[in-house]
Amino acid sequence: MQSPAAVRDRPQEPSQARAALAGLIALLVGIGFGRFGYPPLIPALVLAGWFDPAQAAYLGATNLAGYLVGAALAPRLALHFSATGLIRTALLAATAALIACAFPLGFAWYFAWRLISGIAGAVLMVLASPKVVAFAPGGRRGRVAGIVFVGVGLGIVLSGTLVPWLARFGVPETWLAFGIASAALTAVAWKGLPSTGERAHASVEGAPARRARGTIVTLPILVLGVTYGCFGIGFVPHTVFWVDYIARGLGYGLVAGGGYWVLFGVAACLGPVLIGWCADRIGFARSYQVSLLANGAFVGLPLLSASPWALAVSSLGVGGLVTAISSLALGRISELVPLDRQRQVWGWMTISFSVFYAGSGYLLSFLFARSGSYPLLFAFGAVALIAAYFLDLVGTRKRSQAS
């Protein structure tokens, strides 16, 4: 029996609703604002003379590189520090990065803060979402996970809606508005993060990792790692260049670019639900293959037409998959490896996605700087996705023949 003093000293846990809200805010600030708030601002940064188009693209890719660093560091940091403390630190860092970008102090200044923003976003994605979902009762975890990941789509919608309006007041004012909003949201989420079972959770997570050291890398796992990375390549043209392509490349202006970015965000909110419904009916393997082929078509659609309907379909299609593909990849892992080895393989997949995403971000920025061609970017992403579809198709058939 615990003494009254021990009970009194125990941290009071938040309600389930408040914890879910804190998880949503973590992804809204770290990914929604930190990563996806930047693409709508690229045209404004160029028009204001802060950077040329190539520099602005490189800075977008720098955030992806930071995400790779953060994804690799977060699990290791969680072994030595409180996950709640790391999440709060990442929220503060993401907010500071938004405020710092309000000051035009040169490319190196922006590079450093966009890198920090990417690291913070990855820490929030890797640590906050599973922590909040694990805190929920078993029967509600799927619902809570859906609520948490809405934060990414909500950030895209808000940035697409607000940036064209805020940009009228100036680039610094736009960044400061994002920073102030993030600071307010961080304050709301500060005490909403659950702390129960951190030590126990760490020990439970550590056990599968130790048992999984002997995992054999099979052909299906290698194929999944490559194809999942190709999704990262396919997302770069839209998540870095899309708004700039519409606003400056097509000459439609920042308001139109922001409008299509809102469609992208709405689809990102709905995508996980629709993809989950599809996977329940045709299976994760088939849903994953269909998503590869469909995403290739959505990314390549601007090569065929720049009409409003084509831009809308492309925005909705890629946006719907950008937040849903992780659930499909995780489902594929559950079909390919035993339960006690899934965490290790999922770690490999996260690193693969991040490497392909960041690497292709810099490569496409380099190609754009040399050619100034937006169609080249969409062609590169579409070809990578279609090639990945055929690779996964062959890998699946070989696995079926072997069994």
Task: Report on this structure.
The chain is an all-alpha fold and 403 residues long. The protein is built from 16 helices and no strands. The termini are far apart. The relative contact order is 0.14. Mean pLDDT is 84; it is low at 5-10 and 197-213.
Shape: globular
Q: How large a portion of the residues is in β-strands, by DSSP E?
A: under 5%
Compute the number of strand runs: 0
Low-confidence stretches: 5-10, 197-213
Rg over alpha carbons: 21 Å
Percent helix range: over 70%
Structural class: mainly alpha
Distance between the termini: 55 Å
Q: H/E order of the elements?
A: HHHHHHHHHHHHHHHH
What's the rounded overall pLDDT mean?
84
Number of helices: 16
Main sheet record: none
Which tags fit this structure?
single chain, mainly alpha
Secondary-structure blueprint of this entry?
Layout: H1 4-9, H2 16-33, H3 42-47, H4 53-78, H5 83-100, H6 107-135, H7 141-166, H8 171-189, H9 198-211, H10 219-249, H11 254-282, H12 284-304, H13 308-322, H14 325-336, H15 342-371, H16 374-402
Helix pairs in contact: 2-5, 2-6, 2-7, 2-8, 4-6, 4-15, 5-6, 5-8, 6-7, 7-11, 10-11, 10-12, 10-14, 10-15, 10-16, 11-12, 11-13, 12-13, 12-14, 12-16, 14-15, 15-16
Q: What is the compact description of this entry?
A:
By secondary structure, the chain is mostly helical.
